[in-house]
Amino acid sequence: MPIIFPPPLQAGQRVALVAPARHVPAADLAPALDVLTSWGLEVTLGESIGPAHHQFAGDDALRRRDFQRQLDDPSSRAIFCARGGYGTARIVDGLAFTAFARHPKWVVGFSDITVLHCHLLRRGFASLHAPVPVLFRQPGGEAALESLRRALFGEADAGLAAPPHPLNRPGTATGELVGGNLSLLHTLTGTGSQASFAGRILFIEDLDEYRYHLDRMLLHLHRSGQLAGLAGLVVGHFSQLRDNAVPFGQSAEEIIDSYARLYSFPVGYGFPVGHEADNRALVVGRTARLTVDAGGSWLK
C-alpha cells in the first residue's frame, strides 16, 4: 500500500490542539501557543482542552467528538495531541477517516499517541512521532522542537545519529518507519490498529516500566511473529525504569538484545527518541535507511 503524506504546512494556516488521552489544563499550553504562533500558524484549542473526567480530558465521547471534528475540518492542517498518558485507544475505534482521506493532515504526538500513528499507518497515512505541546519548552528539547518544525514545514532533514554501543548489531536496512511506545505496540497486537512491521524499520521507546514488563512485551512480539520480518530496529530512550526487590538482572538494552539476537536485522541503540528532552521527530511511514557500524548508528 502506498503511503499518503500530508502536504507541508505553510505560514498562515490553522492547526488544532486536542487531548485524546489525559487531562490538559489550557494554561499548560501557553508556551506551545507561543511556539506555534512564532512559526506563523493560527492555533485553535479543541473542546477536549480543559475538561476533566477522572484522569481523562473529558469522557470518551467528548474526546472522540473533538478529534473527529478536527479530522473532518479541511481548514485545520495539523492536529497536535497536547499530551499522552492513557486513553487514545479508548476512542480510536469510533473515528472515521473518510473526510481525512480527502484532505490528509499531520497528526503529531508520541507516547500514548502511538495508537494513532499505527492506526493511520495501517490505513496508508503518514504521521509525526514528535514532542507533544505540553513539552515544547522543556529544557534541553530545543533540537527536538526544531526537528518537529522542519518536518512539519517540509524542510530538509539530516536524519538521526547515535553513538557506538556495545550491543549494536552492524548492518544496513531500508524500509518505512513504524513504531513508538513499546507498551502501546504490545497493546495494539491483534486489534484494528496494529501496523505491520514486515519489511519496515521499527523504532521503540518506553517510560516508567518494570524491567520484567519489557521482557514480557518483547517476548510477545517475538512469539507472535512480529519481529521476524523486521528490516531493522532503532532503540530510543527507555527512561525511569523500575525493578522488583529481586532484580530482573538485565538492563533494558540487554533485554532487547536477548530477542534481537535471534534475528539477523541490524540494531542501533541510543537514538534520541522517546521520553527524554531530546526527542527528535520521526515521520512514521517515511522510507529511511539505517546504517550501523563501528562508528555508531545513522538513520536517514
TrEMBL record:
* Listed InterPro entries: Carboxypeptidase_A_C_sf (IPR027461), Class_I_gatase-like (IPR029062), LdcA_N (IPR027478), Peptidase_S66_N (IPR040449), Peptidase_S66C (IPR040921), S66_fam (IPR003507)
Q: Does the keyword Hydrolase apply?
A: yes
Q: What is this protein called?
A: Muramoyltetrapeptide carboxypeptidase
Q: Which GO terms describe its molecular function?
A: muramoyltetrapeptide carboxypeptidase activity
Per the UniProt entry, the signal peptide is none
Q: Which residues form the LD-carboxypeptidase N-terminal domain?
A: 15-130
Q: What is the E.C. number?
A: 3.4.17.13
Which controlled-vocabulary keywords does the entry list? Answer: Carboxypeptidase, Hydrolase, Protease, Serine protease
Top enzyme category: hydrolase
Q: Which organism is it from?
A: Hymenobacter caeli
Top-level taxon of the source organism: Bacteria
Q: Which Pfam families match?
A: Peptidase_S66, Peptidase_S66C
Instruction: Family membership, please give it.
Output: Belongs to the peptidase S66 family.
**Record has Glycoprotein as a keyword:** no
Q: Where is the LD-carboxypeptidase C-terminal domain?
A: 174-290
